[in-house]
Amino acid sequence: MRMKYIFLPLMLILASTAFRIPQKLVGRIIPVTLMLALAIGILSSHYTFYQKVMSHEQEFYDPDTVKLMEWIKQQPEKMVFSGSMQLLAGVKCCTGRPITNHPHFEDSRIRERTLRIYQIYGRRLVAEVYQILKQENTTHIIVEDSICFARSNGCALKDLVDTANGHRTESGRYPFVSKKELEFSPIPRFCDVMKFGLFWITLITYYVASVRRVVANEHQLVVQVPGYSPKEDDAYIGVSIKATAGYIVRFEPFAHADRIHHMLLYGCDKPAYDSSFWEGGATCAGASHILYAWARNAPSLSLPEGVGFAIGNKGDPVQYIVLQVHYAHPFSGNVRDFAGVTMHLVDTRPANLAAVYLFVSGEAIPPRRDVALNNISCTYDGDAELTPFAFRTHTHQMGRVVSAYFKRSGQWTQIGKRNPQWPQLFQKIDKKIVIKKGDFMAATCRFDSHDKAEFTPMGSMGTAEMCNFYMMFYRSADSQDPFPWGGGCGGNENEELVAAEYPKDGVSLLPKHPEWEHVAHQMDKPFGVKQRLGVSKVGDHKLGQISGLSYGKDGSLYLFHRSERIWDGSTFDQYNKLQDESAINDDVLLHVDVGIASLKLRSSYGKNQFYLPHGVFVDDSDYIYTTDVGSHQVIKWKVESGNLKPVFTLGEKFQPGSDTNHFCKPSGVAVSRNDGFIYVSDGYCNNRVMVFDKNGKFIQQFGSASTMGREASKPQLGTFFLPHDIVLDNKLRRIFVADRENGRVQIFNQSGVPVQDVSYPSLFRDVYSADYDEEHGLIMIPGSRITENAQIEAFVCPAPSFKLQFSFRPTDSSFKRPHIIRIRDNVVAIGEIAEEGGRLSIFDIVTQGHHPQVSSKELYRSPDDVNDAGSPFFITLLVIASVLIACFVAYMRYRDVSDGNIVDRTGFKPLKTDDIPSDNSDEEEEYSRARP
């Protein structure tokens, strides 16, 4: 293959000559002689180069790869290298040095090792990346083009960390990693053909000390509503926490405009009250500093490189964080809100410190005006130079445009301009502008009051209006703070000047952007979760313990219950074998339509076919999959002539086991829409998930038992203490497992590699069931109360962060023993296994409707770019985009495609065996660990 590089120029010359004058090539000695002479000349002049090419054991001569191999040869022989399989195969062939993985697919141990190594390309914290590599005795990691794609400054350890969980900023910046902490490769690029350097290769040496410094340099601070339900319109609350020392570089909100009007994050020397929570609009006892503001579903905000908000350090004016939350309306139903903000901090002081300057007007808006302007102006008299880098606008429903400018030497310069009806994010300022001492600053809000009969006052209530422009800026960390008590302008220092000279562009309307306005739309009716019905009987069927639920493709519901059979301490012997092997003499699978006030029975199945029902799943072809903890089997059924007929059976009847042909009390089952693979949570004895293909052939298993002792408070990812329920995200190919006794939901990729877990030990100590919905995210429910007086609630954690945002419970009663939860669209079904029998509750989540996801990049786009599709600039962009697409296609041919590739993401003990302790339900159900 390498010979083609030698003869390629010759072949091109000969081919072109033959194409143009074939008759002169055939039978003519002179032209052929000339061609041969030319070939000999080229070979002679490049003889040394060809010798060098042929001396390397590789198909292509790539100088950077050669340099890499030569560099590796210079390192101590004990060094161990990790990276992609393809590159490491070359390392092994060319250098003979130890590697952790390579493409030897016949060896199962090598495959498993490669799978472990490839976890570094997934959603991992820096500490986890280090631990994965440390387990394989890795000393060096080779980071390739697929990780460094589109990074203009090379790549580093920071680029192995994913954006989706807030571990890294959207821009790829990870400010706490410095070149001093890592040893970088002397080889700058993997391929120097690309002009803009789309391919880099960086060799990073891992040292325990350096990684520990990196981990210690980053932490998160979360301020969260502790579960609040507003009782009146325009309710305000405050949540206070002590600030930890550091510098905020990123704000990540978790809230939704369906529930919340807006949130403001304040920095205080002292909070308004000594408590951590209060009702009312109070924030700080003294000086207050606005740190962040959110409304209308705005996305996260990452600060520029080298910029941070100083909090909690000695001498900082911010020693406490106060989150103010405004609720427009009370919720309907028993709903509690858990919204909040995650702050990402670094320990090292950045070169520049950030702050927010607020322009605010208190002037009432006159009625019957198509255009009503509220003006604000002040002169900046501080010594420090201010560099605005982001801005946010805020009004209520009447606002149309909000802008701000500053004037120097007769020249007006725009700070920012935005439609306040769009998502109220902090929009980034593209060009650098600097405000200096003596500059005149002004802002204006344009309102439309044509349908108002009286003056509209300014105020915090929803019936009033607001005129706010938040200017986020930075100054040198070495300069004096010009606003030690908080920066703001609340008047109109020079009314005549603003009225006469304020730029017309600052008050002109921006083009319509309906998708942004839809995302930002706030509810015109109260958010809530309303209980539609709660039943313990369907037709003539009295419900037993409801162990499983599944929605059909048409929205109908399948109920899997146990009739009169109860799981208690005598149900199984010490070897997990069922004591009573008689089948249940009733139909235990009910197919129902969910009506407004009742359930309508379509059909019932399963008489004398089940022993102790547990999980059920119905696929899009109406095949039914069930798990039976009594028979230790998973069965695929079809409905034929009104009866259930088995298609195939997994597991041996009444025979528990831990090999690939047996189950031990399998708890849940789910089937992928993508490939028909069957996922089974084999929970009560084996603590694993088993995967089968659509025909029932075993594919793989993953998971192991969690250990007791030190890890009990924070079990290791990928271990289980009773995997009790399992559901799938077919779109993103994720697996959600309710890890019951560990009190969490674990999220895995389709290969069974753990991505993250979701747990809130202060709110629940177990998770019996969970489901995933594209719009609402993860919904989960515990099976017991965390304290004697607490109420059991369902908890909703929207994607992608899976931070808890709200909870709900019934209005007509209380949950007693929830066992299974399922959601379809906005309808939630919850089945219980209480002592007196089963109960099914149906809830409706009342929202404004599905909100399309708009990327942060799209939302950050300058308003001036909204409708420029016909401009020459846009055409130029199309041409550039076409070239980039062509380059990207070429890149895709060589990229290393691995599961969880970062480039693909823009900007997861001993077991007792009884049922319930005193109320006979499902093995402390099902039986559980001892309660304190």
UniProtKB/TrEMBL annotation:
<feature type="binding site">
    <location>
        <position position="326"/>
    </location>
    <ligand>
        <name>Cu(2+)</name>
    </ligand>
</feature>
<dbReference type="GO" id="GO:0004598">
    <property type="term" value="F:peptidylamidoglycolate lyase activity"/>
</dbReference>
<dbReference type="InterPro" id="IPR000323">
    <property type="entry name" value="Cu2_ascorb_mOase_N"/>
</dbReference>
<feature type="compositionally biased region" description="Acidic residues">
    <location>
        <begin position="916"/>
        <end position="926"/>
    </location>
</feature>
<keyword id="KW-0472">Membrane</keyword>
<feature type="binding site">
    <location>
        <position position="261"/>
    </location>
    <ligand>
        <name>Cu(2+)</name>
    </ligand>
</feature>
<protein>
    <submittedName>
        <fullName>(pine wood nematode) hypothetical protein</fullName>
    </submittedName>
</protein>
<feature type="repeat" description="NHL">
    <location>
        <begin position="655"/>
        <end position="695"/>
    </location>
</feature>
<dbReference type="GO" id="GO:0006518">
    <property type="term" value="P:peptide metabolic process"/>
</dbReference>
<feature type="domain" description="Copper type II ascorbate-dependent monooxygenase N-terminal">
    <location>
        <begin position="230"/>
        <end position="330"/>
    </location>
</feature>
<dbReference type="GO" id="GO:0016757">
    <property type="term" value="F:glycosyltransferase activity"/>
</dbReference>
<comment type="similarity">
    <text>In the N-terminal section; belongs to the copper type II ascorbate-dependent monooxygenase family.</text>
</comment>
<keyword id="KW-0325">Glycoprotein</keyword>
<feature type="disulfide bond">
    <location>
        <begin position="445"/>
        <end position="467"/>
    </location>
</feature>
<feature type="transmembrane region" description="Helical">
    <location>
        <begin position="873"/>
        <end position="892"/>
    </location>
</feature>
<dbReference type="InterPro" id="IPR014784">
    <property type="entry name" value="Cu2_ascorb_mOase-like_C"/>
</dbReference>
<dbReference type="Pfam" id="PF01436">
    <property type="entry name" value="NHL"/>
</dbReference>
<dbReference type="GO" id="GO:0016020">
    <property type="term" value="C:membrane"/>
</dbReference>
<keyword id="KW-0328">Glycosyltransferase</keyword>
<keyword id="KW-0732">Signal</keyword>
<keyword id="KW-0511">Multifunctional enzyme</keyword>
<dbReference type="InterPro" id="IPR018732">
    <property type="entry name" value="Dpy-19/Dpy-19-like"/>
</dbReference>
<keyword id="KW-0186">Copper</keyword>
<feature type="transmembrane region" description="Helical">
    <location>
        <begin position="30"/>
        <end position="50"/>
    </location>
</feature>
<dbReference type="Pfam" id="PF01082">
    <property type="entry name" value="Cu2_monooxygen"/>
</dbReference>
<keyword id="KW-0479">Metal-binding</keyword>
<keyword id="KW-0808">Transferase</keyword>
<dbReference type="GO" id="GO:0005507">
    <property type="term" value="F:copper ion binding"/>
</dbReference>
<feature type="repeat" description="NHL">
    <location>
        <begin position="718"/>
        <end position="751"/>
    </location>
</feature>
<keyword id="KW-0677">Repeat</keyword>
<dbReference type="InterPro" id="IPR024548">
    <property type="entry name" value="Cu2_monoox_C"/>
</dbReference>
<dbReference type="InterPro" id="IPR000720">
    <property type="entry name" value="PHM/PAL"/>
</dbReference>
<dbReference type="InterPro" id="IPR011042">
    <property type="entry name" value="6-blade_b-propeller_TolB-like"/>
</dbReference>
<dbReference type="Pfam" id="PF10034">
    <property type="entry name" value="Dpy19"/>
</dbReference>
<keyword id="KW-0456">Lyase</keyword>
<feature type="binding site">
    <location>
        <position position="394"/>
    </location>
    <ligand>
        <name>Cu(2+)</name>
    </ligand>
</feature>
<comment type="similarity">
    <text>In the C-terminal section; belongs to the peptidyl-alpha-hydroxyglycine alpha-amidating lyase family.</text>
</comment>
<dbReference type="InterPro" id="IPR001258">
    <property type="entry name" value="NHL_repeat"/>
</dbReference>
<feature type="region of interest" description="Disordered">
    <location>
        <begin position="908"/>
        <end position="932"/>
    </location>
</feature>
<keyword id="KW-0812">Transmembrane</keyword>
<feature type="binding site">
    <location>
        <position position="262"/>
    </location>
    <ligand>
        <name>Cu(2+)</name>
    </ligand>
</feature>
<dbReference type="InterPro" id="IPR008977">
    <property type="entry name" value="PHM/PNGase_F_dom_sf"/>
</dbReference>
